[in-house]
Amino acid sequence: MLVVTRFAVGGPETDAADAFVVRAHTALAALAACPGYRSGRLGRAVDDPAQWVLVVDWESVGAYRRALSSFDVKVNATPLLAAALDAPSAFEVLASAAPGGEVEVRSSDRARGADAAVRS
Q: Is the pTM of this model over 0.85?
């Protein structure tokens, strides 16, 4: 389970970016303490320093949802996540490759026919 959350941090002023970074580090630490957390990264766009991304990898959808229910995450991460850009953020990983490795394909956890139901 891959969660990619994008943020637009106002203007070029460093105060806004500095405050955002502190909040993002706090949120990342709260998420990292949860069972099922695999890794997380905070990144800033090279071409637009107002654009940020928080990428977190979870062992399953259930682990991610349970993490969102934890008290520490509700207090330290949810306020930051609520400020994210309105876009899909949770993705199931369907293929991956280690450096120099083969592509490993995984089946979807979605119920069969769920894609058809979404399109109608």
A: no
Whether the CB-CB separation of 24 and 54 falls below 8 Å is answered with yes
Q: 19-42 burial by CB neighbour count: b if 16+ within 10 A, else e?
A: ebeebbebbbebbeebebbeebeb
Q: What are phi and psi of 36, to 5 degrees?
A: 90, -10
CA separation for the pair 6, 86 (Å, rounded) = 8
How many CB atoms neighbour CB 57 within 10 A?
16
31-53 per-position pLDDT tens digit: 999 999 999 999 999 999 999 99
